[in-house]
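Cross-check.
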Amino acid sequence: MITWTVLGSGTHFASATRGSSGHLLRSGDTEILVDCGPGSFHGIAKAGSAPENLRACLISHLHPDHVSDLLPLLFRLRNEAKSSGERRFLVAGPMGIADYLDDLADLHAPYLDHSDFHVEVEEGNSGALKIDHLIIDRAPMAHGVPTVAYGFTGEGEGRIVYSGDTGRSAELVRFAQGAELLVIESSFPNGKEEPFHLTPAEAAQTAADARVGGVILVHLNPECDDGDLVEQCGDSFHGLMMIGTDLMTHEVDGSGRE
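Predicted model, tokenized:
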């Protein structure tokens, strides 16, 4: 079984109810942070876990609302390595993630540096990664900057796809095809279409075209809370449609589409 917890369902806007983008994937003893926007670091604890449990952090793109809490996360893991012994941690992301991490290390040295703490970097938007029993595939998205979508497949546990930020994308339809769960951005309400983001109607059409089982809409700007997002999705998608909220949890078990 793979469990997906939304740590932050919002965007770069300050919100009393929605943190910036961050998600926690759990499967057996494997825990992975997917995006790490402001609030994600403390969101891990609110979701009943701890930074020390994480095997990796996967970043969709380098906008601050998706990556800013990487700094306190790495600081905590470095301090854990100082007291508990050698620790290796994977950070994956789009082209530019290696330079970003180098810049963080230069700016905050020596607080991210220790002989027992090793950050391994995987840069790119294609090819598969393997973390324990999970296979993680990647695909480029349409966001104006290098952006990666991630797909997570366990052994008999089904598949979850996370879009990151994107506009309408034939590549996302292909990449998400048949997934049990699609966690997809929906930044703007219908009528405010943008080239590098989606509306509920566009997200629902993507889900329908990809024939996924269920959907969680995330990356919701404050104006999205002014209307009925499920109604805005229209009738193109007939699966389970969920509006993301902070600390929402959903499970897939490989038994088929939702």
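The chain has a mean pLDDT of 95. Residues 189 and 199 are 5 Å apart (CA to CA). Passed to J.P. for a second look.
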